[in-house]
């Protein structure tokens, strides 16, 4: 297919799978945006028509593998968390998200993984994307970045993580982490000219065996939606605050290039848009499948507990990749 992507997605709460039929005069545009453009991965957009389709069968995608990525060791991850805490203690950062990569030497076919994730996570956006240059990506994300119908826009502030079934109350640290995300989103909406902003939450948001704190935020917005999404991204839920300093910390400390992990993806049309943060995702590389997970570091974070949080996040979707 030349430079055209192969693309499938299953919207949250739906049973139907959609694909994009490439067409330069199409009514829908699909966007695949990196976490940090300074790390080199390009923003990709494709116009076409979104149509219902069958889920892809194993063997549909060509084998396109990108360069090797190494697993992050516990020692390296804990060291990065300690460095993050030092930067917070010094007043350089309020929060920073430290992520890690885990390599699975063997996995099921991407098409099989996509169907498994659809079954495992009915309320997530599940997608499978193959691009000749950027390789194959698949994920099941619970986190909305921006949804709009006409001039009504919705977004969410999502932070804090625990295993489902925990009886303990949310800690001040977890509530503070989530409030940082909420404040950032409200600042961006105000700066971009949104009006009639309303908040609902925070409430518990379940994702598989995990629970997060979520506040839903609605507003009226008359401007162009894609620049608003770019202004919201990256939120402190995946980067930190202040955003520029947190992104610089991530570039200097993480051994892997996030490329599209913690970026955003979704579609836009003349009637609105639906963009999701690219979490709980994986990328097929030359040495296996690379899974990504991270956690927000704020004052009071415990390095070993942060490693355990990333383990829980990986376990929430890693079983879908087993051969």
Structure description:
Strands 10-11-9-8-14-13-3-4-2-1-6-7-15-16-5-12 form a 16-stranded antiparallel β-sheet. By secondary structure, the chain is α+β, with helices and mostly antiparallel strands. The model has no long low-confidence stretch (mean pLDDT 92). A hairpin with a 6-residue loop joins strand 1 and strand 2 (17-22). Helix 1 (74-89) crosses helix 6 (303-315). 25% of the residues lie in helices and 38% in strands. It contains six helices and 16 strands. The longest helix is centred in the middle third of the chain and has 21 residues, at 172-192. The two termini are 28 Å apart. The protein has a single domain, classed as Anthranilate synthase (4-Layer Sandwich).
Shape: globular
- Poorly predicted ranges (pLDDT <50, ≥5 residues)? none
The assigned CATH architecture is 4-Layer Sandwich
Distance linking N and C termini: 28 Å
Give the % helix: 10-25%
Total of domains:
1
CATH topology: Anthranilate synthase
Give the tally of β-strands: 16
Mean pLDDT score, rounded? Answer: 92
**How would you name the CATH homologous superfamily?**
Anthranilate synthase
Main pleated-sheet profile: 16 strands, antiparallel
Strand content: 35-45%
- Helix-strand pattern, N to C? EEEEHEHEEEEHEEHEHEEEEH
Q: Helical element count?
A: 6
Top CATH class: Alpha Beta
* Structural class category: alpha+beta
Summarize the structure.
By secondary structure, the protein is α+β, with helices and mostly antiparallel strands. It is 25% helix and 38% strand. It has a 16-stranded antiparallel β-sheet.
